[in-house]
Protein 1
Amino acid sequence: MTAYPTLRQPRSVERLIVGQAVTDGAGVKINRVLSQGLQRRLDPFLMLDAFRSDDPNDYIAGFPDHPHRGFETVTYLVAGRLRHRDSAGHEGLLQSGGVQWMTAGRGVVHSEMPEQEDGVMEGFQLWLNLPARDKMTAPGYRDIPAAEIPGYVSAEGVTVRVIAGESHGVAGAVRRPVTEPLYLDLDLPAGSRFAQALAPGHNAFVYVYRGALAIAGERVAERRLAVLANEPQADGVALEAAAPARALLIAGRPLGEPIVQYGPFVMNTEEEIRAALDDFRDGRLA
Ligand code: FE
């Protein structure tokens, strides 16, 4: 049990973002809540896609072979089964509650395909940038099944799953240098509160995927992303749930480096993007 910590000053909500309905892969319906226009503001995070459907037509086509270079993809499956295969020889089955943390580094070609033909498919894919010096690192891959994701239940009954970073003394499944990402999945019962310390310089956001929350008095509705202000005196974020709610709390240290994206490649310069396209075309990513 963890007591409700006292914050000196909680962060306020700077902006509320409504996602865009997009179709990606071979026809998967997605709510893109963090898109290119927010990459600078939410540095080191490049993208957050949310998906949830009980209609197989919305997801069954999956994401056949496609490349990535220059960042990490973090896929968190709330419900469903997703098979991953990549050109570095990694294969894994992501199941309900599990996380796949893939470092694309200098490049992989991979597929992400649903292994269910009915039922609900729900989850998120977050793109986390790599520092310039690590963009051409060797590809890496980790499957973290639900049972291996650390968590706790707070004194107020909030179930916290610590995917990355640290929360109330509980170390997450993943720790990353430089960007020090925090990635929490929160399940808040009616009438509960949750507070989390955050370094003022770290960019942070909350995505509400079930129910609604109040953050520093501001209501954040379902399927809204709240960008948290970086007030220099603020020491964390405080959430209140009047009714049951589920949300992701994500934060990290900005890299402050140039971001040049072309589809699945995110580098620092146009020249590096051209090199990525050449390498992909000539089969050097596989
Ligand atoms: Fe991918």
Protein 2
Amino acid sequence: MDRRNFLKKAGVGVAASTVFGPVFAQTAPSIRWRLASSFPKSLDTIFGAADVLADRVSQLTDGKFQIRTFPAGEIVPGLQVLDAVQQGTVEIGHTASYYFVGKAQVLAYDAAVPFGLTARQQNAWMYYGGGLELFRPIFADFNVINFPGGNTGAQMGGWFRKEINSTADLKGIKMRIPGPGGVVMSRLGVVPQVLAGGDIYPALERGTIDATEWVGPYDDEKLGFYKIAKYYYYPGFWEPGPQLSFYVNLNEWKKLPKSYQQAFEVAAAEANLTMLAKYDKVNPEALQRLLKNGVRLRKFPNEILKAGQKAAFDWYEEEAAKDATYKKVYTAWRKFRDDEYKAFAVYELGYEQFAFPNVG
Ligand code: CA
């Protein structure tokens, strides 16, 4: 007889919660996992999502399933998180999948590509539009199961020492911009640089670089770029809704009790949601402070947006022609993107264009 039937027959339905508590505590295994983040603690909104996950998993399992979070470099270098999870050095990673395009270019679609999906559209794709189904087998080849793990929302285009009025002004500009954004910008004549967060300010100050992108007002303000590069461009068209991901070692995942897997999935979804919610609270406040500090807000000229969009779409077609997995994901993604754009242009943009202030 299973426990539920036994309880029903014994007439202890009302007392079930008090009965189940101790039973769960007796039978649930104690599990200790380690999470390696690709991010420093100073990126508190992004890094903090790992703590949201860990705290909720602990609460949902009466403290039996404990996850300890480590910032980039403490036990695993930030850009080696995928390898570490694959090999089982740590059970969990928290990262951005476009860091690993050197292994497979298609991984960028688990994070962001230029002129791709907004945060809401990325969630729609991953949870309901076939994105997770497409990526689970791709990550299984790395011995990983992946979960959406946060989003920054549309990023800013970044900080420039001089005004950019045309694509000609981008030629030869040394800009810190890694990943897929760097590829597209290089096709517009920019010389992309890859620098870790702490190295950007001194490089910009010395003039080793002319421009940098980072995240958005809240994180950018903390690094102080406004003190040395007054022009703050938008939109960051290479990251319209970049998603972070939790990676879990597949062998370890399979060993978890089902209830712990459920706790993990719920906690990951909470971290995914609340990271964006927090950014949407702190970014507007930071933007106001930056403007008070004399920052000059500029929109990229349409010429640059158009050239960037063409460069991006040409590049995706080139990659699709080279790699069957990329083509499969890209083809499904492109159809989803086109459908989302058409609908959002009606009900979201139709509202926003009227209701939001015109900042030029
Ligand atoms: Ca960025």
